[in-house]
């Protein structure tokens, strides 16, 4: 396994607050690159180099970007330089150590031994080394000299470590024993192996394998101790409160995420800034139109009514000069409310006319049937022949609706930004004036995806197996999005595997405008959403944490997507927490405003009203809370709010009946019954 294998990929992280401000102050980066290029035996390729300040969260975030998503190439070796000393600002070992899945004290030992042989001050470096996913990670000191010596001390053994960590089958690596390993690595040793391969493989597999990669013998690395003894922890749990390791248990879950925590308002302004503007489309006027927002001012295409029409049942007449119509008239025609040519009416003749029917040409007024008496019938007895009118002082235009008297052609009937409602008659107005198509803002199509190995279809027959959880979020969020007027695509459930997640998200982003995922956004190992969005999909996470309860890990990202037409657009991904209550609250608080913005609804988001508390409400000391509540109309129209009960984010029961989210501030003193707070209305309000 020498020259012919592809180069191992190295990423370099310079940890220095000074260099982060001014990269020209960094000297170690170049030195390390030289060591890798000149002493690495052509095995290495530096693929990325980044500078971050001495901030744990930023160090961890960059390392996770390199190590967490199993893109085909991956990063084999992550070297950090800086932040390993005793200074107040030195945090690199702690940041890295919390991310390691496997510790590599042997590498640490090798580096320290080498430096100690140069200076006792090597004791002032606190390196850590180990493996995260398939990447080997090593912290080097910040001084160019120290960094170089440390790297030189271990560099030759690292290809072997990296190949193993990357999953290369171990027997092919080890065939030939330590001597061959040393020879391959270019190390001369008298037998004391710094690499520490004390294990031997089962004798049943002793046939030779030189470059074999797959010989049908599955050799798992799990529990393969390499004779190193149990896992070594370098820090006491209390000294290292931050970890990605779900195995460390609930007491450690309040770790820091690499994403800054935004206030709810800041999160909302990020959404406003990065959600795409609405797109304008021509839309037919039909019963699907309600909910749409007009993207244009709409003018009447025609007069309403379009013809002079009678507003009563009676007789069209030609009013004589003196207005006196008291006389008997021949009925010369009938005008029903039906299209057709009418015969010209002359003075002295009348025409029977029904409500809404067009006036015959020449007619100037309509006499109500109540002001007339039937005199004679036609010979067949089926029609009126003569009618006596009892009215005098008749004026022209009586009982007539003039052309355009309701709506004039070309007048403005609806304005840009107005919403077409299903109850307000806007559709009827458009229909009346002959507008068959309007410009509206296209309503985005929403996709809903559940993530998690434990999640099963909610309607799967049979009992749950231990650990399985029914998919609550998908059906809930699809229903909610539909209720708000958006077309919904069911994206199903995807397991916690970066490959499948990436594939599913890619497909989804082609299909829909906005993707909602739930689960996989906390700091657990399998919480792959953020790295997948950032690394595999090239997206931008605008926020990954919000100071609120519930819903802290809510994540908002935009991802570049090429449309079928070849245009480059950005689509929106909301990764909501897995807990059902959190998912529904954050949908209403964050996703809805984005949907509104994309469809031109303004103001975006839930309607806010002041409400009066029906009982005391305790407050969270640190985070503002969005409390699921029932708001009703009480005496004298006061809106009264009561809690729907247990508000833990996992509590599905607390969703029942909730029609509002109370905005409770963080604080120590409970809000008292009768106090007023803001409430965001999710649904209609009923009387008590
Ligand atoms: P996660 O963010 O993936 O760690 O999920 C947090 C919690 O929410 C876990 O208890 C999950 O089992 C639960 N959860 C995640 N997705 C769903 C879902 N679609 N329906 C119900 N519970 C879920
Ligand atoms: Mg999960």
UniProtKB/TrEMBL annotation:
It comes from the Eukaryota. Residues 198-210, 218-227 have a biased composition (Basic residues). Pfam families: MoCF_biosynth, MoeA_C, MoeA_N. InterPro entries: MoaB/Mog-like_dom_sf, MoaB/Mog_dom, MoCF_biosynth_CS, MoeA-like, MoeA_C_domain_IV, MoeA_C_domain_IV_sf, MoeA_linker/N, MoeA_linker/N_sf. Its cofactor is Mg(2+). Pathway: Cofactor biosynthesis; molybdopterin biosynthesis. Residues 11-161, 447-597 form the MoaB/Mog domain. Residues 184-257 are annotated as: Disordered. Keywords: Magnesium, Metal-binding, Molybdenum, Molybdenum cofactor biosynthesis, Transferase. It catalyses: adenylyl-molybdopterin + molybdate = Mo-molybdopterin + AMP + H(+); molybdopterin + ATP + H(+) = adenylyl-molybdopterin + diphosphate. Catalyzes two steps in the biosynthesis of the molybdenum cofactor. In the first step, molybdopterin is adenylated. Subsequently, molybdate is inserted into adenylated molybdopterin and AMP is released. In the C-terminal section; belongs to the MoeA family. Belongs to the MoeA family. This is MoaB/Mog domain-containing protein.
């Amino acid at each position: 396994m020498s020259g012919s294998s592809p180069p191992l990929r190295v990423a370099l992280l310079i940890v220095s607050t000074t260099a982060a401000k001014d990269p020209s102050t960094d000297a170690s980066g170049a030195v390390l690159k030289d060591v890798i290029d000149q002493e690495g035996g052509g095995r290495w390729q530096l693929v990325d180099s980044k500078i971050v300040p001495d901030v744990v969260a930023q160090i961890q975030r960059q390392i996770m970007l390199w190590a967490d998503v199993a893109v085909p190439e991956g990063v084999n070796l992550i070297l950090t330089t800086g932040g390993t000393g005793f200074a107040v600002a030195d945090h690199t070992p702690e940041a890295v150590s919390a991310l390691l899945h496997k510790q590599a004290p042997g590498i640490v030992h090798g580096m320290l031994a080498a430096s100690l042989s140069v200076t006792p001050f090597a004791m002032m470096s606190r390196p850590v080394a180990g493996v995260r996913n398939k990447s080997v990670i090593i912290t080097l000191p910040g001084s160019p000299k120290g960094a170089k010596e440390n790297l030189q001390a271990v560099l030759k053994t690292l290809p072997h470590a990296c190949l193993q960590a990357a999953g290369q089958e171990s027997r092919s690596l080890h065939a030939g024993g330590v001597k061959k390993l040393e020879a391959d690595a270019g190390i001369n040793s008298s037998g004391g192996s710094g690499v520490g391969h004390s294990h031997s493989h089962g004798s049943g597999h002793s046939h030779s394998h030189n470059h074999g990669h797959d010989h049908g013998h599955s050799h798992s690395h799990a529990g393969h101790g390499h004779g190193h003894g149990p896992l070594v922890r370098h820090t006491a749990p209390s000294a290292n409160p931050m970890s990605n390791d779900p195995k460390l248990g609930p007491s450690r879950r309040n770790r820091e995420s690499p994403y800054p925590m935004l206030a709810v308002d800041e999160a909302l302004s990020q959404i406003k800034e990065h959600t795409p503007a609405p797109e304008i489309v021509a839309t037919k006027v039909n019963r699907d139109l309600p909910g749409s927002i007009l993207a244009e001012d709409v003018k009447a295409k025609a007069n309403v009514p379009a013809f002079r029409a009678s507003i009563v049942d009676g007789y069209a007449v030609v009013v004589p000069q003196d207005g006196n119509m008291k006389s008997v008239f021949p009925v010369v025609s009938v005008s029903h409310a039906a299209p057709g040519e009418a015969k010209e009416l002359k003075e002295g003749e009348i025409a029977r006319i029904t409500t809404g029917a067009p006036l015959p040409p020449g007619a100037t007024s309509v006499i109500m049937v109540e002001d007339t008496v039937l005199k004679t019938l036609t010979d067949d007895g089926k029609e009126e022949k003569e009618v006596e009118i009892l009215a005098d002082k008749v004026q022209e235009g009586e009982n007539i609706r003039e052309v355009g008297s309701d709506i004039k052609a070309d007048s403005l009937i609806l304005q840009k930004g107005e919403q077409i409602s299903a109850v307000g008659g806007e559709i009827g107005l458009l229909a009346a004036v002959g507008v068959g198509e309007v410009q509206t803002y296209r309503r985005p199509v929403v996709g809903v995806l559940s993530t998690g190995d434990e999640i099963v279809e909610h309607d799967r027959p049979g009992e749950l197996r231990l650990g399985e959880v029914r998919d609550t979020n998908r059906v809930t969020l699809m229903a909610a999005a539909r209720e708000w007027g958006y077309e919904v695509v069911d994206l199903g459930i995807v397991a916690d595997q970066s490959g499948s997640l990436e594939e599913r998200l890619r497909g989804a982003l082609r299909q829909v405008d906005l993707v909602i995922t739930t689960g996989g956004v906390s700091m657990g190992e399998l919480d792959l959403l953020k790295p997948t969005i950032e690394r595999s999909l090239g997206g931008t996470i605008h926020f990954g944490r919000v100071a609120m309860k519930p819903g802290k890990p809510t994540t908002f990202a935009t991802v570049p997507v090429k449309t079928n037409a070849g245009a480059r657009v950005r689509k929106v991904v909301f990764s909501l927490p897995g807990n059902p209550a959190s998912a529904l609250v954050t949908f209403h608080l964050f996703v809805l405003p984005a949907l509104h913005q994309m469809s031109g609804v303004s103001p975006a988001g839930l309607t806010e009203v002041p409400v009066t508390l029906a009982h005391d409400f305790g407050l969270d000391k640190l985070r503002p809370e969005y409390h699921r509540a029932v708001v009703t109309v009480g005496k004298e129209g006061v809106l009264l709010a009561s809690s729907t009960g247990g508000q833990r984010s996992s509590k599905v029961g607390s969703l029942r009946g909730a029609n509002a989210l109370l905005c409770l501030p963080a604080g120590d003193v409970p809000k008292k019954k009768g106090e007023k707070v803001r409430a965001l209305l999710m649904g209609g309000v009923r009387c008590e």
